[in-house]
Structures are given as C-alpha cells and as structure tokens.
Amino acid sequence: MFQYKKVIAIVSTAIFMAAFPLSSIAATQTKISSVSLDIDSDIEAGSSSSDVTVTTSSSKYSVEEATVTNTPNDDWEDGDKPKLKVYVEADDDYYFASGFSKSSVSISGSDGTIISVSRSSSSELIVYITLDALDDDSSSSYDLDVSDLTWDESNGEASWEEVEDANKYEVRLYRGSTAVTSVFTTTGSSYNFSSYFTSSGYYTFKVRGVYNSSNKGSWETSDSWYLSSTEAEEIKSNSSGTSGSSDSSSGPGTTQGTGAWLKDNNGWWYCNADKSYTVSNWQSIDGRWYYFNEYGYMVTGWVSWNSKWYYCGADGAMYSSATTPDGYLVGSDGAWTGA
Question: What is the pLDDT of residues 171-224, one digit of tens each?
Fold first, then answer.
C-alpha cells in the first residue's frame, strides 16, 4: 500500500508498522472489511421450489455456494422463513480478518436478516441468512409485469413502463451474460447506468416490479445495446463529468444536480432523483467524485478500490492532482501515485 517516507537514517520494522497502519501487513493480500450480497429468491408460499441465487458484483470475493437449509418436505407454507447458508470465497489477493462480524455484511434484493457469520479460514466466510416470512398474498392479482424496456443511447438511462401495483422496482445491468452491478432498487421507472459502462460489449438490463418481499414480478430483459470502448467512455464522461479537486466550496448539506444530500444519525447520503442511492461504489455529483459504503453513506479518508488507494476529504470529495493531508500524492485520476 503506502511506503514509508524516511525521516531518519534507521528505523525498526515495528515502529514502521505502528506509525503507518495503512502499510501492508502482507504485500500480496488486502483485508476485506465488508461484504455485499444480492439475493434473488423465487420461493413462494404454496410452491415446492427452493430456487435462490446469491451473487455479488465485488472483484474482491465471490459466492461459491448458497443452499436453503430448511427446505420443506412438501410445499412452502404461509409464514415460513427460508434459511440460507452462503459460502463466500476471497480472491487470491484478499483475505477475511478474524473477528469479521455480521454488521459488516449487507444484503440487497430479497428481504431478509443476517443471523450470523463464521470465518472458516482467512479465505472463506459462511454467512447465515433468514429471509422474511412468506406471504400467501401471492395468489392475489397484482399486476407486476413490466414492459416497454428501452435505452436512452444519449446518456445510458434505462427506462420502462410504470406498473400500477408496483411499489418499487429491482433493476440490474449486464454485459453479455455477466452481471455488471448488483440489484438496485428504485421507486421510479428509470435508472441511469452511465457510470457502469467501463468497457466495450453488449449491454442489457433486467427489471421487475415489486409489491412487497413476497410479491415480485418476473424479470424482463431489455434489447441489447452494443457499445465500443470509445462510446462507453464517452457516455460515462458526458454523464458523470470529470474528477474534481477537493477545494470546491459546495458539498454535503446542499441540494445538488437532480438529487439531494441528506443526513441522519449515521452520516451523509445522497438521494438520487429516482429515490435510489449508491452503495459500495463511487458516484459523481456535480463533477466531484464521492464514495459511498455498503450502507449508502458517504466515506471520508482513504478508500481502497480495485487495488488502488484514493483519498476523500472532510467534505467527502475525492482528491485529484493534489497532496493529501497526511502527505501523499494522488494523480489526476485520484489514485495514490506511490510518492
């Protein structure tokens, strides 16, 4: 990570590690501090199906296996709570530290509760999740079928026809058959994916209407949209702007662009115009980049992202082409230069 700036001729390794906690304990591995999982459950009351898919969009770890541990002998009944056992494997360059707790795991998609987390080794976590109770209202005639899925090829916005019975929608971006994002939830009938066009390929999005956790429509898939690497970069740049420096006077606490900064007891978060919010990712707001953690709150200080380090100031804005308060240089892209 960060290399020590020598201020005296000789210094012990112990002092070096104590004085610079950002220095790598193991040069080849980085600690994973949080895990985000997306759950797609097709389990319904009155059905014998136990189909559940658990995925992640992280490059640091992957889901190796997910099983339902309380599958009934017959059909699922009203009030049943499906229980999941999910195996999460760290990639070669990362590890799970001892003491990893359930508070460091977040879930999206199907609603549920994280019951416990056990660490079988530095490379594997086992996450136990209980889904919300099944509701037999699935037999009711909710119209959740989404139609008219379209791309706005000028700005990368996905849109669909609003469904009367849907209280919200779940949407996800794909490049080919690979999921680019986790499942996002929005109350509007559109979602802007421009910041996720990172390379050439055939892009599609999937969306479904949601009445509640037990009543969800079928996933519908858009037509594919091919983008060259140049086109992808152009849309991403036009929509999100360029990386800004840290000395702008605007910041959290003011309304910006088409969304608004909001604050609660846990910190600042940004509510987009479609009522969605960014989790475990960057978002450009009025030309300045901010990082939001797995719970959607703005992060300050050093951020590890895709094996690089970035610094966000007290106002949350990422530094670029500057020296951080602790004396490190970051380049025009915001990444630490090694100096």
Answer: 999 999 888 887 787 878 888 888 888 889 999 999 999 887 778 888 999 999
Pairing mode, strands 255-256 and 259-264: antiparallel
Measure CA of the first residue to CA of the last residue in the chain; give whole Å. Answer: 11
The predicted pLDDT at position 252 comes to 43
Cβ 256 vs Cβ 285: under 8 Å: yes
**Length of the chain measured in residues:** 339
Nearest to 183 by CA among 111, 96, 99, 115: 111
Long-range contacts of 323-328 (CB under 8 A, 24+ apart): 327/5, 328/2
Using CA atoms, how far apart are residues 159 and 178, in angstroms rounded to an integer? 20
Rg (CA), the chain: 22
SS3 assignment, position 139: helix
Of 187, 192, 185, 222, nearest to 296 (Cα)? 185
Residue with tokens 């421009």: 194
Q: What is the pLDDT of residues 302-333, one digit of tens each?
A: 998 888 899 999 889 999 989 998 889 999 88
Which class for 27: exposed (0-12), middle (13-18), buried (19 or more C-beta within 10 A)? exposed
Beta bridge partners of 131: 112
Three-state SS for 1? coil
